[in-house]
Amino acid sequence: AAMIAATLMVSCQKDNTIQYNNATMGNIVEGKFISDQGNIFNVVDQQCIGDLQSMNRAFVVCDVLNRTAGGSENEYDVRVNQIATVVTKDPVYHTEVTEAMMTQDPVHVENAWIAGGYINMLVSFDVKTGSKTKHLVNLVFDKEASTGNQYVFNLRHNSFGESLIYGTADSQLAHNYVSFPITDIIKDNTAEIIINWTWFKSNGFEWTKDTQEYSCKMTYTKGGFEQAPVAIASKVTTNLN
After folding, report:
1. Global pTM value
2. CA–CA separation, 127 vs 180, rounded Å?
3. Strands (E), 116-203
4. 140 phi and psi, to 5 degrees?
5. pLDDT reported for residue 165
6. Mind listing the pLDDT tens digit of every residue in the chain (241 residues)?
7. Separation between Cα atoms, residue 77 and residue 112, nearest integer Å
8. Sheet-wide strand order for 92-93
């Protein structure tokens, strides 16, 4: 899976005003958006649909306008340009996997990065056009396959019977953001993370009906931060449990 590790930044010119574009995930705590970098963002202008106050965790693309008057050193007024809700789920130990979690329907990791003590992902999977069925996605920690400071996770997907062949007339691709907190599992200061998943094979032009195993490696650093993608994916859905 391709990793995007850059964000657009434009430095400002004058006074103490900080003006730049930022794309980050974060949590809404007591009405404030706390980014994974630890900054506090106060929304003074919003140019998109979405209600941060109704979310627990979100992916936000914004313009940082200035430091908040009377606020802390890391508190800023922002103009929000894009918002996507983020599903937060604890990883599951492989010994705790339920029957519903054992199903491995195709699921794809489009982006993945580590920040704020989370493995953050943009995942996609097939859904039946017009369906309201909630799909189940879980990150399963495989303790037996993990050694030393290398941690192995398997991303599992249960479509509850809606697993279709991507690209057919009665299916469409759903996109969802999901964050998995990992600090209860990983106690090392630095660790290697391996994520495995099953998705369709590519013939170089399109996805085929056959599936194969995919994987990616990521480096976890305690207290570290990786930049989020620079933009929010289009057509983010709510087809995820």
Report:
1. 0.87
2. 22
3. 118-128, 136-141, 150-158, 171-181, 190-202
4. -100, 125
5. 61
6. 333 333 333 332 333 444 678 999 999 998 899 999 999 999 999 999 999 999 999 999 999 999 999 999 999 999 999 999 999 999 999 888 888 888 899 999 999 999 999 999 999 998 888 888 899 999 999 999 999 999 999 999 999 988 666 666 677 888 999 999 999 999 999 999 999 999 999 888 887 888 999 999 999 999 888 889 999 988 888 788 8
7. 28
8. 92-93, 136-141, 150-158, 190-202, 207-221
CB 239 within 8 Å of CB 178? no
Query: Residues 227, 113: contact at Cβ < 8 Å?
Result: yes
DSSP summary character for residue 231: S
Which amino acid, residue 89? Answer: K
- Which is it for strands 40-46 and 75-88: parallel, antiparallel or unpaired? parallel
How far apart are the C-alpha atoms of 219 and 25, rounded to whole Å?
18
- Whose tokens are 């920040």? That residue is 115
Q: Tokens 């943009």 identify what position? A: 122
d(CA 214, CA 230): 24
DSSP-based three-state secondary structure for 77: strand
Nearest to 83 by CA among 123, 30, 37, 25: 25
**SS3 call for 33:** strand
Backbone angles phi, psi at 190, to 5 degrees: -135, 140
